[in-house]
Specification:
The chain is mainly α. It has 2 domains: 2-126, no CATH class; 137-208, Aldehyde Dehydrogenase, Chain A, domain 2, CATH 3.40.309. Helices cover 50% and strands 5% of the residues. The chain has 7 helices and 4 strands. The protein has helices at 2-26, 31-46, 48-56, 62-79, 83-106, 137-145, 160-169; strands at 149-150, 152-155, 174-177, 191-192. Helix 7 (160-169) links the parallel strand 2 (152-155) and strand 3.
């Protein structure tokens, strides 16, 4: 029974992955619907460990794995409304996968808890990078700007001139070129629903200044 659940989860998540790729590439989902989709997807992949617990008969793992699933369910639900929580959820799930690999194949303990057994390298194959094809630079900029958010963007190019040209067209408060790190002297903030105003840098001082306008009457 547990093995059939595992197969069902693999098939379901495979379908969800395909649907997610199509949604991103073909714009089937709106940005908000896409966020909800990946929030639910996080809950689905977290459910694998409960299925493994049943299949391998690791009785002592039910409490730990059930509690973890509850946490990821909360993160997925909140993440469907708050993007930062969704990012945090996937990062934590990646660490959770790594911990299971170390526990199952290197003997690393879960503190006082017991984790379930897992197939070899299961966690390694959970990491997914989504890449969207584009026809030309104009199409790439259109895809990048087709979102309600705009905190940061990243541009990779062998031509610094071309990278600067693309950066100027991106609707983001910060654009990092060729792996550049954050600069505390540069203004921090976003476009659209990523917030108004800026922190850091000389521009941020304007938030703490009071500007006075003195207007004179001009004689005719």
């Amino acid at each position: 029974m547990a093995l059939s659940v595992i197969f069902a989860l693999y098939i379901s998540i495979g379908i969800l992955s395909a649907a997610g790729s199509i949604a991103i590439a073909k714009k089937v989902f709106s940005p908000k619907a896409e966020q909800i989709f990946f929030g639910l997807f996080l809950v689905a992949i977290a459910g694998f460990y409960l299925a493994f617990t049943a299949h391998f008969g690791t009785k002592g793992a039910w409490r730990l794995e059930g509690g973890a699933l509850a946490v990821f369910a909360v993160l997925g639900t909140l993440g469907s409304r708050v993007p930062g929580v969704l990012v945090l959820g996937y990062v934590l799930h990646g660490l959770w996968d790594l911990l299971h690999e170390l526990h199952a194949h290197a003997g690393v303990a879960f503190g006082t808890g017991t984790g379930t057994e897992i197939p070899l390298a299961y966690g390694a194959f959970c990491a997914v990078l989504c890449m969207i094809g584009y026809e030309d630079v104009d199409d790439a900029v259109r895809i990048a700007n087709d979102t309600i958010y705009g905190l940061a963007a990243y541009v990779q190019s062998a031509s610094e001139e071309r990278a600067n040209d693309v950066a100027a067209r991106l609707e983001a408060g910060m654009v990092f070129i060729n792996g550049a790190a954050e600069d505390p002297q540069a203004p921090f903030g976003g476009y659209k629903m990523s917030g108004n105003g800026r922190e850091w840098g000389e521009v941020a001082f304007s938030e703490f200044l009071e500007t006075k306008a003195v207007i004179h009457k001009h004689s005719a």
